[in-house]
Amino acid sequence: MAGLNFDALKLSIAALEQGLEEHAQYPQLSTVRDGVIQRFEVAVDISQKLIRRVLQEVYQMEPAHIAKNAMREAAGMALIADAECWIGHVNARNETSHTYDASKANAVFERIPGFLLDARDLLQRLINATA
User: Fold this and answer.
1) Which of 43, 66, 71, 90 has the highest Cβ tally under 10 A?
2) Tens-digit pLDDT profile for residues 89-104
3) pLDDT at 1 over 50
4) Domain limits of the chain?
5) CA 82 → CA 11, 17, 63, 76, 108, distances in Å?
6) What is the mean pLDDT of residues 29-45?
7) CA distance 70 to 75
């Protein structure tokens, strides 16, 4: 499909991987943890935008319908494996971006390795769906 480019998702996944590696080297630094969380937020945002765009452009879904049900529709089209898990990622992203709370930040950080697996899977599924 013309116009679809997944480089931003690839870069955000790589940045998140690098952040997790840096955190493993410096686990005591909350600034490194916070940087990983920020990279998570960016990767979730990019993932959501690509999912919506593919649903609209490849699967011809209406934007209004996608806005309310994007993750469930994406699961229905096999772009993601588990809608509820992705909804959890989005909710975690939204929580960290609206308020700062150390316990919430730690909970979100613990979710990131699972998100990384899901993001890699999404990238492959998007490539396959648009090939």
Assistant:
1) 43
2) 999 999 886 667 888 8
3) no
4) 7-130
5) 23, 22, 21, 9, 18
6) 96
7) 9
As a whole number, mean pLDDT of residues 40-69 equals 94
Residue holding tokens 């996944």? 13
Query: CA 1, 14, 46, 85 torsion: positive or negative?
Result: positive
Number of neighbours of residue 82 by Cβ within 10 angstroms: 13
For the segment(s) 7-130, the CATH number from 1.10.565.10, 1.20.120.330, 3.30.530.20, 1.10.10.10 is 1.20.120.330
Q: Could you read off the pLDDT of 51-60 as tens digits, one per residue?
A: 999 999 999 9
